[in-house]
Amino acid sequence: MVEIIEKLTSDMLNSAHEVILDAFGPDKPDIALRFLKFSLEKEKSQVFNLLDFFILKKDQEIIGVMGIVSLGYDPQEVGWVCYPGVKKKFQNQGLGSKLLVHLVRFAKRRGIKRLYTDTSYPPDGIQARSFYTKNGFEPSGEMKDFFIIGQKTQYFVKYL
């Protein structure tokens, strides 16, 4: 079984979107697909310092996706992990960590010094928080009612 990490291309959009839906559930369909599509457009540089997605293939099947975003108003050395996901049947095999290692290397080459991510509190965020801390991220704060009213979001940072 061969695993390959590649930069997202337009012919991979639907498969990458399916991975996100499988990993996160169907409640984020529109915005995830818009982010994936926008990452392929030239105009992204007007809004983002950086917006790229990578896919993980195993035996030619797209089973993972992870993006990096640096917003135009953020300092250029700040990046955010965006829509990280591995299909459920492939989780807990170290594949998300492989994608994250690739993303960190890419971020370093692009001048990113701090990589942030966020996750919701239980029940949804337990597995994600464990994943991030296992991969060298440290808790950096929390916010209530930011994405969803009544839900806390925890933020993590990794210094590169």
Overview in brief:
This protein is α+β, with helices and mostly antiparallel strands.
Provide the fold topology:
Blueprint lengths: L2 E5 L5 H12 L4 H10 L9 E11 L2 E11 L6 E9 L8 H15 L4 E7 L5 H9 L3 E7 L7 E8 L1
Parallel strand pairs: 4-5
Antiparallel strand pairs: 1-2, 2-3, 3-4, 5-7, 6-7
Helix pairs in contact: 1-2
Report what the structure shows:
With 160 residues, the chain is α+β, with helices and mostly antiparallel strands. It has a single domain, classed as Aminopeptidase, CATH 3.40.630. It contains 4 helices and 7 strands. It has a 7-stranded mixed β-sheet, sandwiched between helices. Helix 1 packs antiparallel against helix 2. It is globular. The N and C termini lie far apart (31 Å).
- How many helices? The count is 4
Question: In this structure, how is the largest beta sheet organized?
Answer: 7 strands, mixed
What name is given to the CATH topology? Aminopeptidase
Low-confidence stretches: none
Strand content is 35-45%
Question: What's the mean pLDDT score?
Answer: 89
Spatial strand arrangement across the major sheet: 1-2-3-4-5-7-6
